[in-house]
Amino acid sequence: MDSLLEMGGNPLENSGFEPGAFDGLKLNYLRISEAKLTGIPKDLPETLNELHLDHNKIQAIELEDLLRYSKLYRLGLGHNQIRMIENGSLSFLPTLRELHLDNNKLSRVPAGLPDLKLLQVVYLHSNNITKVGVNDFCPVGFGVKRAYYNGISLFNNPVPYWEVQPATFRCVTDRLAIQFGNYKK
Hints:
By secondary structure, this protein is mainly beta. The protein is built from no helices and 10 strands. The strands form 2 sheets. An 8-stranded parallel beta sheet has the order 1-2-3-5-7-8-9-10, with no helix packed on it. The chain has a two-stranded parallel ribbon with strand order 4-6. It is globular, with a radius of gyration of 16 Å. The termini are far apart. InterPro entries: Leu-rich_rpt (IPR001611), Leu-rich_rpt_typical-subtyp (IPR003591), LRR_dom_sf (IPR032675), SLRP (IPR050333).
């Protein structure tokens, strides 16, 4: 049976979680949105498949933040203040299929996306991304990626779209999967 916990709309801060508060809970889905979290809580159940921490005040993802959440296939971090995702921090999520990082303050595509073999959907719209590199999404070489992307959103970023090489999206199912659009300041 899937277990689900919604804790949205509470004035929860990171200091508000007592160590072991979730011990013994076999949760699959947890949502703590519209709270006051400034970072990813490190002591949530490791059984989680879905973690939604949207509409908080999270500013960064540091290396160990996602260490215990290796079973996640959907991570929602939209509408935060994330400026930095430490290199290697996403490598702890080998089964991740969907990553929501829209409406943050990222200035580049997070490192490590090409190594996520099952990743299919990435929301990066409404950030401060100014450059998209040819290897930001797809691995170099063939046969590495097991699932092709079917959704990448990059609209509302100050990236000069005409400078993005077509090969950047060589592991995307079709062109319609990419949402660029125009940047409105």
